[in-house]
Amino acid sequence: MNAGARPPLADDQVGLVVEVFRMLADATRVQVLWALADQELSVNELATRVGKPGPSVSQHLAKLRMARLVRTRREGTTIYYSLDNDHVRQLVVDAVYNAEHAGPGIPPHHSGPDGQPPHK
Known about the structure:
By secondary structure, the chain is mainly alpha-helical. Helices cover 48% and strands 12% of the residues.
C-alpha cells in the first residue's frame, strides 16, 4: 500500500457521500446552493434569485437541510438560509468551477472583470 493512499471509506460514510451528490443532482438545488455560497438569504429572496416559486424552493431547502447542506437562522418571522459549513461552500464552488472548464475559452473564474485573464 502506498504511504499516501487513502484507506477505503466505511459503508455508512459512502452512503452519506452518495446522499450529498444526490442533492447536487438537481438544477434548482444547485442554483440555491450557488446563491447561498457567499450570503444568507430568505426563501423569498432565493425564489427570486433562482426564478422558482417560493413553495418549490422551500421543498428543496427542506431536503438540503435534512442532508445537512444548509442551516437556518430565524430573525423575527423570517427564516434565513445559509450553507452549513465551508466544506459545502467549497464543494459547490469547485463543482461550478469544474463545469466552467468544460466550456470554450477561459473559464470565468480565471478571468478578470474585463473577461481577460488577470495580469500577474
